[in-house]
Structure formats: structure tokens, C-alpha cells
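Notes from the pairing session

We agreed to fold both candidates in a single pass and log them together. This is the raw record for the first candidate, unedited. Please don't reformat it; downstream parsing expects exactly this layout.

Candidate A
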Amino acid sequence: MGLTVLTSTVVIACGPFFPWQLLDNRKQTLLDLPSTDTFSQKIKNLGVVTAQEKQNLFSADNVNLLASEQTTCPNTDEAYKKAATLFHDKQWEEARSAFALLAYNDKNAAQQVCAKYTLGRIEKELGHFEDAVQSFNGTAYLVANGAPDPLHLGIAAYGEAAGVILDQIGKRITTPYNPKDDSGGITLWNVGGVKEDSLLQLQRAVELYLKQVKLGENSGLSSIVIILKGLSDPKNPDAKLLLDQAVHNPLLRKILLAYVLTDEIDYRTYSKEQTQNILQAFVKAGIDQKNHYDDLGSLGAFAYQNNDMDKAQVFAQYDWQKNQKALDAWVLAKIALRKGDKEKGQEFYHQAIAHFNDGSLRKDNIQRVQGERAVLTLSQGNFVQALEELWPVRDSYWGDVVYLAENVLTPDELKRFVNIHTTVPRDRQAVCDQEVSNENYYDQDTDKYYGYNLAGRSMALRHLLARRLMRAGRIQEAIPYFVTSADANCKGIPQHVQLERDYIKATTDMRRSFWATDRAKAAWKAAVILRRHGMALMGTSGYPDQNPGDYAYGISQMMGPVHNSNNKPWSVSTEQVRTGASWPIPNHRFHYRYLATQDVLYAASLIPHQSQAYAAILCHANGWMQDTSNYGSPPAIYYYPNSDSYESAEEHAQVSLWKNSSYANAKSVALYNLYLKNGPVVSFATHFGYNCPEPQFGAVTKVKRDLFWKKLRSSFHFLKGQ
């Protein structure tokens, strides 16, 4: 079937290749160039097959299991069986003659395919290498033209033919497999003495493997990787000689560039030495006008990734002047930024975006370029424009959108942006939500997989603005931005609207009601609303609240210009000032619980200390703080889980956990001490903070009256004593 498949683990490309946020390390974002090619797709596009091959040949990776389990050629006659006996007895010459007759007998087409394939194996054993290649190719030809192939020998024959060719220009070695430690079983290819036709033979072998890849045979792809690994071996002088020739070959040149620019970990089997060896071979080839290279942009990207900026600029600039590809402009933008020229860098970013349709960048890199331009715009102090440029790629870099919207733009700037770019979609199928979520609140636009779509991001931004206005005390302004796509389908008032109205009334009554007890009852109601629904009403998507969003713990990252020194050259002081001004007070996770506790303390100051209501509301508030102290989350907005050192990030997280717990615990202790100092003896005092009863504000009037008469009697006793 060709060369042995490489042992590897399938993983999703992530981390440095597809950063979820661009602003957490702006230097890396703007100056590093991520991988620009997907190896498997790039290679698949290079394979050439005929319509007959595509129709009748197919990959053994996707065969019918019943057919793949067969080990012998079906429906064979006595002549075939006699020939097979000669083959197994290694009587090669006699077997060759017997199978040659069978291979040209078209009475049994399936048997003819088996005979042709076996003839190739025999000729290989006899050292008739070119004949073997022709027999294997003949096998594929028979199948492509309609011959039955239950053993799928047609596509396998291409790999066998390629292997025979490779053996003429090098040596294949497969290390023994060791099941104890799952090691070995890997095939290596060492280039031998380079001959006049070595490059041509190498191209022939690669073309055959490309046919397998095009038809869906993964072993062909892995075989090509093994060839490229052997070809780039810096310790093999013969390989270096053949590599110098290969970079001039149009097909091999494209494959080499795809190999070193790939982001698929399955196929990143080369070392840094190999990469440098390939780069030097390309550099040695130089720019030859007569060759009409159409891949110098990729070569510029390759040089940039290997920190050879001079060569990167030469190749990218040359290709830009001739072809004006988006990839060229992207590389030139980064080179300009390395030189400190932000204006020129911005110009090349605009050019890259203008040439997106040329096919030189895949979809994820197109989004990356758009995001990088926004980062550069932010570094120049153009905050609203940065969000404008980031908005089209909001689905990829939502964490960056959240940072700008929640921490950098002013509420009024964000409000204008939201009014221009978002609307509330009408959804006649949406069910009116009559249940207001608790702390595990998710934005209304999440689907069952907690994933956003672009329309959903618009709703998420509207809710983010609503919560930010609530935190700023602009409650009436916030209400329209809480509207959901299902509100129009509600028969009555949507629950979230009623909640917002109740909160507004409670916060109004707690300041304006005439009687102190009424003010206390309103303050308690406001506190309960915040405790139960504070995340939905005013929680931050980033730190410190880490909600709501499409993950249970928020966006999990945040990026400020101060904490990470890599961000300093790429920010302006105004950003830092704005970020600090946007912090919630206090800057701790579930910050609204602390606001609820403040309302409780206000209510407690308005009612008699000896009342049950006084003890009950302090009991509840104490429980809220105890519950909050169980959550560990960084209290500062400048927290970096993606710091350079895993240990330092872990240490910072532990310190943050301690600080957050200590802050909430201190509030809990203060509330309990306040009760001990002033409160009455109650049955729930022994488990203060747990199973607290509802406050009985109706009994407050009687307590006040009793206190009044008690004080009056004390006054009479005092006067009588005089």
C-alpha cells in the first residue's frame, strides 16, 4: 500500500496557531506569523486523477469491511492456483511466466487484476524494477476502466509502484515495532547516491502518492511526509544535493513549502535543522526571472517564520510587485511593524484585506489578518475604529470584542456602536422565556451547544451594554438593550422586563419612601434581586464576574496593557486609564453580591436592632458572603492565564484565590460581628448564614412601638428619680 503510515495522534490545531484572543500578547500577535498552509488540503489539491480513476478507484481507508477482510483473489481457476503455489514457493521465474499469461487473459476480469498486481510483486523480487512499476500501474489502469477490484488493489498498486521507484534512489528502513512501549514501527527513507535521473524518478514517485491522496488514501499522504523528511535530512550530503534540485522543480517546490508552512501536528515531523536546511536550499536557488516562480510569497512567509527578515522582505516584496497577493502584504505588514513603522504596517494590512479573494490565505488566516489590523488600530489609540475592524471577525475573537466593549470604549461610545451595528431579530418560533435565569445565566443567543453564531453575537453585545449601563446606574437606559428575540411572542410582560421594573422600583423606593420601614423593605427587595439575578442584570463578561457568555466561566482570559510587558509598545496610556475607570466596584467576582450586601446594611440601619428582620437580613447577607468565599477568581482585571511560565500562572491563580476568598470572608465576619453586637437572640443564631428565615418586616412596627414605650418609661423613671 506504499510506505508505512506514520504513528501520530490526531489533534485539533490550536494554541499558537489559532489564538482565541489576540490582545493578551500583542507583540506575539503582531510580530509572529502563524502557519499559512494546511498540509493535507494543499497536497490533495496537487494530485491529478482521471475521471475513470475517480469513479472506480477508492481509498482502502473507506472500504466495505466485508471486502477488506478478504485475503485471496476470489473466483480463481486452476491455472491461477498453480501460479499462486509457485509464488509462495518463491519460484520467481516460473511464477512470473504463469502470472504473465493470466494477466493478459481477460476472461475473468477480477482474476486479471490480481494477476497483474502479483506480477508486479514478482518482477520487484527479480529486480525488474521498471517492469514492476508498469505492472502496478497496469493494475490501476484495469480497475480504472471497470475491472472488478474487491481487494482494492488498484489504489494500492500506485503506492507499490511509488515504493519501487523510491528504492532506486534511496533506501527505506522500518524500525521494529515494540508493543511494550508502543515505539518503533516508523518508516524512514534515506536518499542514496544522486544520479542523473534521480529528480525525475522522485517526481514520478510523488505523483503516484499524490494520486492516492487525491483518491482519499491517507497512507499516500504519510508516505509523502516520509519522503520530505528524508529529502531535508541535513546530515545526508546526497539528500542535500537532491534537495537543491527539488526546489527548482515546480511540483516538489510546492510540496516542500506546504510541508514547512503546515499547522497540522500530524505532519509536523521535521526538526529545526531540517527546516533551516530547506530554507537554505530555497535561498540558494534565489529569484530567477526565467523560472517564473508563483510561490515566492509562501517562500517569504517561510523565511519570516525562520527569522530571516532580509530574505523574507526580498521574496515578499518581489512577489507583491508581480502578483500583489494578500499573503505578501501580510508579511510586509509584519516586517514594517518590526521596524517600528505603524503607518506602513497599517497600509499593508489594508492591502492584504483588499486582496483576500486571491486565494493565498485560507479562511482562518483571513480572519486573523482582520483581527491583527484591529490590534494595530487599538495601539494607535483609535478605540472605536478598533472595534469596528474587529466586529466582522467577532465569532473568532469574541474575547477581544468583550475587552474593547466592556473595558475600553466609554458607555456612550459603546451605545452608539450598538445602535449602528446591532438589532433585535424577530423570531416567531422563539418561546417566551417566563423563567428568569439564576447565576448560571447564559446570554439568550446561545444554542444547545453553547455556541454563538454571528447574529447571536449581536444580541450578546446588546446584553453586555445593558449590564454595563446598569453598573453605571443608568438603569432606565439599559432596559431596551435587555430585549430578546422572543419578547414579542410573550402574552404578558416578559419575565426579564418585570424583573428590571421591580429592581428600578425597589431602588427608587429605598431612597424616596416616607417611612423608614418601607425604605428598608425596598432595600431588602433590591438586595434579593441582585443576589438572585445580579449576573443577568449587571455581571461582567470578563473579569471579575466571568459571565455571562458561552462558557460557564466566561471568556477565561483578559488582557490589559499594563500587566504584560509585551503589550506596552502596542497601547496608549489612555487605554489604561479607560480600563481602570471601567472596573466594577468592588473588583471581585460576583461583585453584585457585595452591592446586595450594601443594600442589606442600609436596610439594617433603618429598622430596630432587636427585631427579627434585623437578624434575618444579616443572616442572609452573611450566607451570601460565605458562599462567595468558596469561589476563587482573580480580583484584578490584569490576569494572564497565558503567561510565559505555567508555574507563575498557577502561583498567580492561587494568590488570586486567596485574595478573593479573604475579601468575601472578611465581609462575612463583619456581618456576623455586627449581629453579635446589636442583634437579638434568635433560634437561627447557632447556624448564622445557613437556613435563614425570611425577614418579618410586619413585626417591625410592634418592635418600634415597644421600644418607644420602653424609652418613655425610662424617661419617667429618670424624672421621678430627680
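Candidate B (folded immediately after A)
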Amino acid sequence: MLVAQVKPEEPDIVSKALAKNRLGVPSVVFFGVAGAAPLTVIIGSITTIYAIIGSTAVPIAYLVTAGLLSLFTVGFVAMSRHIVNTGAFYSYISHGLGRIIGVGAAFVALPAYSLMQIGLFGLFGSVASGILGAFGFAVPWYACAIAAWFAVAILGLLWVDLSGKVLAVLLVLEIAVVLIYDIVMIGNPAGGHVTFSQFSPAPLATPVIGILLVLAIAGFVGFEATVVLSEEAKDPKRTIARATHIAVILAGVLCSVSAWAMSVNTGPDQIAARAAEHQTDLVFTLVGPHLPGFLVDIGYVLFLTSVFAALLAFHAAVSRYQFALGREGVLPAAWGRTHPRTGAPLLGSITQSVLAIIVLSLYALVGSDPLVFVFAWLTTIGGLGVLILMWAASAAVLAFFMKNRRGESIWKAYLAPALAFLLLTVVLAATCIGFGELLQVDGDSPFQWLIPALYLAVAVVGFIWAMIMRAARPEVYAAIGRGTEGRVSAVPDNPSMLRPLHADPVGARSGYPY
């Protein structure tokens, strides 16, 4: 008796593979939450938003953002049950919107994630230099950044579960200190009473909510790293879905509660002024009078390790994007190879490390402020690219299930992706229109429009490259976004739909729908 199998709708391309069955739900969650770097967001981003915007609506803004991204995640993880590919956004967009648009998305993803990771080296170097300075050691930010770069470069070539264990230790400590600080701030409220007015939905109807949501979403960038690890996860069809939901909810709750706790301690009417005065030292200033000195010192150290955890997570993401593109022929085949012992993406990891050291060296030679021009600028520019990818992915999820619902509910296949696409369209438009304000440049600066235009340009280059591949290498074009397990079944988990498999050679079809 022959074993019946589901006939794949697209060719299945098998190449060098990443290490399989390495990561369970906790490890994947750690990668996702590490990318979002909650302690970095709480100490750095939230205090900055309070200082610049001056609104008390930050706690509700983070809750709304968590809700929006949870809505996006519904369709995103539903699609992950049908497609297992480390290319994540690139792969999903290829399946939903077509190979040409998928390659354009890949060309956006590579600089976006690369810039996010390199920018974080500026924050790490600056914070580490400050901590060492407090102990009497004058070490320049660049030297501190190089130390972190070396550690990330080595870990990026080792077993992915080793990085997961490192992230687990760092994040457990990080979340613990966040909770301690929150309890202390809430336990010492201004005026002797706790207020919940910061969760009022009224500010959502004012113009300030647009920029608040944009800045809040930037703090979540990195949670989608869970899907990038799908090929290395145990039981990816369940692991990735659970881990992605948990990563979004955990990051959202931590950021919202911490933003509220700060305003409870200072009083809602004083939070903006105190944030402008103390900036990234705000949290430590608020908890310092109520905690032993060593707990405050530990907070500074964990702030540093939070940034390191994010560096490691983004390095894993960008190196695996390069691997996926090399495996499928979009990049040279050398990028599609893994380390023979660890299964890590070899050339992708090395390429990102080389790019990082070049960019950091140039900034050091020019003498630029690492907080403003390395961290703030590069992560903001990279964040715009990831937002573009999320917007396109939400459209791709909807298009994917419009062709065939594949046993998913109407909510998961249609309603949630459609709502996410509409809301992300509004947020993306607001981001592009006000991008100069996010970079804090003058109104006549070319950076008001240059960065969105450059992303459009690299996407167009990707479109053209895909069309060239379709004409010159149709068998490679057929593999775009399909990975090693990119089979798409009509209705998975339904035995009645199974039928004999007739093997077709790769590229045997004479034409492609897109």
C-alpha cells in the first residue's frame, strides 16, 4: 500500500540546512523578547518619549500597540503553520504577493535588520563607556562596542541553542529587575495615592497619538525574530505560533506597566519634566532612594546586557535572512551554506560582522555622537524598513488565505489580517510623513524624504533582479521563498484531502502565476 501524501503546489528545494530541533518555545520567546529589548525600551525609549512628546498617554499607547501587533500576529502565525522558512517576511510575501514582490521585500529586509543591529552597538558602547567611567576607567565607546562585536561575532557562528541559553539568563535577570523597579515606583506614588488616568482612552482621539504609536512600534521591532528561527525550532508549526504571541504580549505588558509606574511615582503632571531632566537615568533616579545601592548598580549592568541580548537576536535574524536568500539563489550560493558542526549560517554571520565593524570604524573616525548618529539614527532607519515589511506581510497573509483558507478560521485567515493591514497602513503613512521629526532634523532637511525613498529604490532593485531571474534562471526563480520545507498544502491536517504524490522536477512548469 502506497503512502498518500499531499501534493505540493510549489517546488520543494532542498539545500544546505540549518540545525534542526534545537529550540523549544522558551528559547524562541527569548530571541523574540531579546529583539524587542524591554529594559532598553523602558530606560531609553519610554523616558525619551515622555521628554519629547510630553504626553501622559504613553502607557495606553503601548497597550494599543501591543493590541495592533497581536492582531498582526494572528494571521502571521497562522501562515507560519503552512510555511516553515527562515526567510520569514521574505518567504511569506513571496507566497502571498508573488516572487517579484518577495525579492523586493528581501532587499528591504537586509539593510533594515543590518542597520538595527549596527545601531545598537552605538548604544552598547556609550552605556559601557559610562559605566566604566564611573569606576574610574576612561574607555572610549568604540572600544566597548568592539568588545561586544567580538562576542556577538563568535556566538553567531556557534550553536543557536547556545545563544538561546545566553539570552535566557540575561532576560530572566532583566525582567526580574524591571518588576522590582516597577513595584518600588508604584509602591511610592506621588501624593500618596496611585492614579490610573494614564490608561484613559481620551488621548487616542488627539493628533499626538500618531507619533506615539510610531515610537511605540519601534520599541517592539524584533519580536518577529521568532519566525526567522522556524527551521531550527522543535515542532515549528506550534512552537513559532506560541512563542510569537508570548513575545508580543510580554513585551507590551512590561513596557506599558513600566511607563505607568514611572508616572505614578512622579505624578502624571510631572513625568515629562522629570524625564527631560534625567533622561536615561530617570528610572534609576526614581528607585534609587528606595533600594540598596547594589540593586541600582545591577540595573545599570542589566541595561547593558539588555542591549547585548538585542544585538545577538538581530545578528541571528539578519544572518538567517542572508542564508535563506543564498539557499534559494537570490544571493550567491555561498551564502546558503551552514557551519558543518554548529549548523549556523556561515557566510551570512561573517558578512554581518564585517559590515558592522566597517560602519562602526567609520563613525569612530568621524567622531560622531554614538547615541544620536549611531544608535538613534540607524535603529530608526532600520525600524522603518521593518515596519514596511510588516505592512507588506499583513497584505501577503490576506492574499495567501484568499487563494485557499487551508482550514484556518475566518478570523485568522481574513478578518485579523485585513484589520492589521488597514491599521499598519495608517501607521506607516504617519511614519513616512513625519520621518524627519523622528530623526529630529530641520524641516528642509533631505532626510525628511530621503530614507523612505531609498527603501523604495532598493525594493525596485529587488523587483528588477527577480524579473531577470525569471527570464534567465527559471528553475531558480521557481524556488524563491520556498525553502526546504516550503510545501503549501491545500488543507493540512485533513486526511480526506490526501492523494498520491507525483514528483515534478524543479522548474518543470512552463509558467508561473507571478
